[in-house]
Amino acid sequence: MTRQRGFTLIEIMTAMAITAFALSAAYYAIMQSIGTIARLQDKTFAHWIALNQLTEMRLQPQVVETGENNGDLEYADQRWVWRSRVSETGVDNLYRVDIAVSKENSADDVVQDIVGFIGPPIVGNGRILPWSSEPAGESG
Asked: For 9-118, which CATH class?
């Protein structure tokens, strides 16, 4: 009597179970990586938006006013909302600016926030005003 060679049903089922487990683990890792990439992309865009807002505030020809402000814009085919808060620092003509950026559909979920500082504006002749108790534009 000759014995047939081959795999038994249990061996085949075990191999299929191991393969299915490995493939599902690989799928989960890939999906997690895709989610991480999307989140990093959103954080990068939000950071750029916050830096752009800070730069626009720094380029204003008048002294910045303390308080809160907000706005929205379209960037990278998405709607974004930004909120800024300007506060005094205790140093004359130096202000702290907190800017938070979030997606329009979830304005309470801040994607990125930054802190910056704004000094006196540059006057017409290109001279930067020194920090002093005088408001910008009134010094000689």
From this structure: alpha beta
